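Re: Re: ligand-bound prediction request (bumping)

Still looking for help on this. To restate: I need the protein modeled with magnesium ion bound, output as structure tokens. Inputs repeated here so nobody has to scroll up.
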Amino acid sequence: MTFEPGPSPTAALEAIAIPEIEHVDLVTVSLPLVAPFGTSVSTWTRKEALLVRVESDGVTAWGECVADPDPFYSYETNETARHIIRDFLVRQLEPGLTLGGLEERFRRVRGHNMAKAAVENAIVILIAMQRGVPLHALLGWPPKRIMSGLSIGLQDSQSALLEKVERAVARGYHRIKMKVRRGQDVEWVRAVRDRFPNVPLMADANGDYTLADAGRLRELDAFNLTMIEQPLSYADIIEHAALQRELKTAICLDESIRGLADAASALSIGACRVINVKQGRVGGLLESVRIAHHAASRGAGVWSGGMDETGIGRLVNIHLQAAHGFSLPGDTSETANYFHEDIVEKPVVLGAGGFIDIPPGPGLGVRVVPELVLKKTTRAERLR
Ligand code: OSB
Ligand code: MG
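Reply:
Sorry for the wait, this slipped through. Here it is.
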């Protein structure tokens, strides 16, 4: 296995000094979803998010933890993240530390990437705000029109699914992802393909299959899917390599990729041809930039995955996609697909050609509205 790191795309970022942070608050918000979101692992009807609010020299920035209240997608939950952030991560913040130094300290805590990312996000956004630059520019990338993609949850009927796809196509989404699971796969994909022969379409199984299902998964090769996401266990890389050899369709890994090392391993053994970078799952923005850079250099496709985030996490994902390597449309869709009322000032909407413009302005480019946060707060504590 050869893995040559080459020039680091995050060296400049790692050298940035973190400002003195006077206050850190943890705020849990709960927002009803406009419709239940069904997957092979759970059906969510609300979005509960743990927000990290940091304050320095009169500037306030917010980060969002992408964990759920339950451990069904990831072992992390909003409660474990609260514990890890409060008892281990925030205590590591001290004047003089750089972003690279912070990452190094955080590495001592094994796993808990979503907790780490939430703190890192808040700090990186704070730095961008203090410098008066957009987040994407702080990361080192010029603005770009971001491709859109909709993730459609498991539906009760094929007609409901077709209706959702139809609306997304009409709206101009660049690709459609549909959830599948054992017993709700080939026929459902066929129904969509028959009606929409040319729409860029992919399927996400959230790890519902085993290698014994390879025959079934091979049937999906008939539908010209752009990829199949996480067909096998969240904990596996090796069997995905065996499966990829059996499939024409590209495998994309989501849950299995916890950082650059996993991405490098997966690509080097041919476990996937595409990587879903969820910045929360991999521990933050710097690691995401590294993975995208590495994967692109190996010829793999890269896109930004979503976690049904509020406007905060949604905008983080949008800025991140300005970075080198993000070559494919991700799970970046309009706020209206998730919430009637968000906690940021302006909803994300599709512009001309189905693209999303990165809002200009410092940090996320959109204000987090304290009144809306308060309205949706179920718990708040000041750590410092
Ligand atoms: O597997 O990509 C996934 C949402 C929650 C948990 C896991 C996943 C998803 C999505 C939706 O597919 C992504 C989004 O629209 O934000
Ligand atoms: Mg997924």
